[in-house]
Design brief:
Blueprint (H helix, E strand, L loop, with lengths): L3 H19 L4 H20 L11 H11 L5 H17 L4 H4 L9
Length: 107
């Protein structure tokens, strides 16, 4: 059975492979997405909250907003939150949409 770390990474890898192939994102952008998603997933896991994309709910999003997405500029934190929302939507998790998290990259 794969380790929890490997499972978490596979959810991110599947999404990034799709974004690379379907959206044609540059390798540099994919790398930035990987860092943002890995940090968010790890922050949820460390807080003992759901860290799998289909299980993330409002409590996890609010935890990230209050504790994790506060380290950088507002625009960078919004970008990271948008990436998380895109990742969740790819796994058919509608929580970001319900919470009105802006889709896409807010550049």
């Amino acid at each position: 059975m794969p380790s929890k770390e490997r499972i978490k990474a596979s959810f991110i890898d599947e999404f990034l492979q799709s974004r690379s192939e379907e959206a044609g994102l540059a390798p540099k952008t994919i790398s930035k997405y990987r860092v943002a998603l890995t940090q968010a997933v790890d922050a949820l896991d460390e807080a003992e909250l759901n860290c799998y994309p289909r299980k993330i709910r409002k409590v996890e999003i609010n935890h990230l907003r209050k504790n994790h997405f506060i380290e950088n500029s507002k625009s960078y934190n919004r970008w990271k939150l948008a990436i998380l929302g895109e990742w969740l939507a790819w796994y058919d998790n509608k929580i970001a949409e319900k919470m009105r998290i802006p889709p896409g990259r807010p550049d």
